[in-house]
Design brief:
The protein has a domain at 75-246: Four Helix Bundle (Hemerythrin (Met), subunit A), CATH 1.20.120. The protein has 6 helices and 2 strands, in the order ββαααααα. It has helices at 59-69, 81-103, 120-139, 172-191, 195-198, 218-246, and strands at 52-53, 56-57. Strand 1 and strand 2 form a beta hairpin. Helix 3 (120-139) runs antiparallel to helix 6 (218-246). The chain starts with 51 loop residues before the first strand and ends with a helix.
């Protein structure tokens, strides 16, 4: 469990509690048990591992269905340099249609949140931050890695001291210019990767900052960026469908 949990209900017991229309965000159910539960019209989005419902481990079923929907998803957990090159090529191909879809919306809608999730602009800003943190800071050791337009995750430790303006409202083109620069940084890094580099560790990064001070496996850093890019594009597509109805 992450150390930024604000309310610890570990080992709490709930009986005869009505959670209808409840909203859970950034919650951890590791080791949780539900008995006599009634799940109907429930929407769950998260990391699913070893989850049994009525005696059936549903995690493999979910993985199989996601891989059926997105065949390229099986290539997004690379272990070597060529695998990362293939994975990043998938990311580079996936984003342009999503951006073109967003361009067809009125500009104000690109700043609008759906169910309090990040807006499209905020999503792009967060991906800038992800690259700044895991590639520019952790892998490349850039002394000033962060763009002020980057948007850290809400749960980042307050002492990380990452410069950002959560209330900024940059235009789509402004953010896309920054995104192109950051994606080119990742592209160039991955293009020159060797298996020895992938299997190694970064030089220690200092405090303060994010990720926290320390040394990290290069594979972990690059996977973090690939994973963020893949998942947040899916979230963006989901929310763009709703914004299109509003527009």
């Amino acid at each position: 469990m992450a150390d930024f949990v604000r309310q610890d209900l570990s080992d709490a017991r709930f009986e005869q509690v009505d959670f209808s229309r409840a909203w859970f965000r950034n919650v951890y159910f590791t080791g949780a048990t539900m008995r006599g539960a009634w799940l109907e019209d429930v929407d769950i989005d998260g990391e699913i591992r070893n989850v049994r419902i009525n005696g059936v481990n549903i995690a493999p079923l979910i993985e199989a269905e996601l891989n059926r929907r997105y065949p390229e998803r099986t290539k997004l957990d690379p272990v070597d340099a060529d695998g990362f090159r293939e994975a990043w090529a998938i990311i580079e191909r996936a984003w342009p249609p999503t951006v073109e879809r967003a361009r067809r919306l009125p500009p104000d809608l690109l700043h609008e949140r759906v169910e309090d999730e990040w807006s499209f602009i905020e999503t792009l800003r967060h991906l800038v931050f992800a690259t700044d943190a895991w590639v520019r800071r952790a892998v490349l050791g850039h002394p000033e890695p962060y763009s002020p337009l980057g948007l850290p995750h809400d749960e980042m430790e307050p002492d990380a001291n990452v410069p950002n303006d959560p209330d900024a409202r940059p235009s789509l083109d402004e953010v896309l210019d920054l995104r192109r620069d950051r994606m080119r940084t990742v592209h160039d890094l991955i293009a020159g990767l060797t298996d020895d580099v992938v299997g190694g560790a970064t030089d220690p990064v200092p405090s303060p900052g994010y990720p926290p001070a320390g040394s990290y496996p290069v594979r972990r850093c690059l996977r973090a960026v690939v994973n963020e890019e893949w998942l947040h594009r899916l979230y963006a597509e989901r929310d763009l469908a709703i914004l299109e109805q509003r527009g």
